[in-house]
Specification:
The protein is an alpha/beta fold. The chain has 13 helices and 13 strands. Helix 8 (196-199) links the parallel strand 6 and strand 7. Helix 4 crosses helix 9 and helix 6 runs parallel beside helix 7. The two termini are 25 Å apart.
């Protein structure tokens, strides 16, 4: 192999073709998806309501927004839904039309991709490995004083699994408000956090009208195929402008109904939080016994690890794992993530143990 390929979290078909491993035999640690899979209760209800396909969804998605509102403790009029958070990111950037944008990195590439279709001047403020990818709040606030039209944050952040507290976010929003900066916070992974109230910015939407929070069901609810995302903001003019540009019936009838049921399945939600919390502690404790890595404290359902073993690259580790049928993420494609980094998510205990054993063998 003369050229090292790059694989992303959902590239199972690409991996299958390259390594000749049937994708059914690959345990995917790179997708960051809930190991329980789709809620069995919701799956049963979907099967019982397939006739919904014969009807148009409610164009206002009233019932779905009410369900989300109850789940997030937010008025339903402050919520809009879309075809995944990807659509909402695109629509928001299109409507805000920012001239200057600041992105907290290293992070998810979709933000920069959508901004590339605009005329925005994009700058980055990078979290640093030397600071354990924790935000230097005072320095960041000083950077915000330069003035930006749009600030984009992922919290908890992908791929670092670090997080900004709600208290710190309030300080950020105060400075942004004074400079006319609109803030978009992607909370795709926030429900996996040990204490969601300590880092979620959803309650802050009641206090700041320069804020929009994005979430979805792809990761926590293991439903990426539904393409259901939602946005929360108290800024009705912005919300209305985004809605005006959205295609009618952006979310299909089954997706809308399934979404309603997902947010109501409290047993599934509780079970997921318990598993992630328990396994996150166990895995972190084990990884801290490895001498050849640096593991960063995770707030989400995945770990970022820096490889310290001389001569061993992230791609080497990826290949060793994939030959065992375990797909992790080689983080070389993340901008400004200098060094040899890998990322993997929390799955079922047996699968996690298998991966830990393979990593221990590679890194010993």
């Amino acid at each position: 192999m003369n050229t090292k390929p790059q694989f992303h979290g959902s590239d199972l078909e690409k991996v299958e073709k390259y390594y000749h491993i049937p994708k059914e035999r690959i345990t995917c640690f790179s997708g960051n998806v809930n190991p329980f899979g789709l809620s069995k209760q919701v799956k049963k209800k979907i099967q019982e309501h397939l006739d919904l396909i014969s009807s148009y969804p409610d164009r206002a998605y009233t019932s779905l927004r009410n369900s989300i509102g109850a789940y997030c403790h937010i008025p339903s009029q402050n919520i809009m839904v879309g075809n995944g958070s990807t659509e909402l990111i695109s629509l928001l950037i299109e409507q805000l039309f920012p001239k200057k944008t600041l992105i907290l990195g290293p992070t998810y590439s979709e933000y920069s991709r959508e901004l590339s279709f605009s005329d925005s001047e994009v700058s980055y403020y990078y979290l640093e490995a030397k600071n354990d990818f924790k935000l230097d709040l005072s320095d960041f606030l000083a950077t915000l004083e330069e003035g930006f039209d749009l600030l984009i944050l992922c919290n908890p952040n992908n791929p670092t699994s670090s997080a900004i507290t709600t208290a710190a976010m309030k300080e950020i929003l105060d400075v942004c408000k004074s400079h006319g900066t609109f803030v978009m916070i992607d909370e795709t992974y926030v429900e996996f956090a040990q204490d969601i109230d300590a880092i979620s910015s959803v309650p802050l939407t009641n206090l700041f009208d320069n804020l929009i929070v994005l979430r979805g069901v792809s990761k926590f609810f293991a439903a990426p195929g539904l393409r259901l995302g939602y946005a929360i903001t108290s800024n009705q003019p912005v919300l209305n402008r985004v809605k005006e540009r959205q295609m009618p019936w952006s979310l299909n009838s089954i997706g809308a109904y399934a979404g309603e049921q997902l947010f109501k399945d409290t047993s599934y939600i509780k079970k997921t939080k318990e598993l992630i919390s328990s396994e996150r502690s166990r895995i972190l404790h084990t990884l801290r016994t490895f001498d050849q890595i640096k593991v960063y404290e995770p707030y989400a359902n995945f770990f970022l690890i820096q490889i310290k073993k001389e001569g061993l690259t992230a791609f080497d580790v990826f290949e060793c794992c994939i030959k065992e049928g375990l797909m992790i993420r080689d983080c070389s494609s993340f901008s400004h993530l200098n060094g040899e980094f890998i990322r993997f998510c929390i799955l079922a205990p047996d699968a996690n143990t298998k991966l830990l054993n393979v990593l221990q063998r590679i890194l010993q």
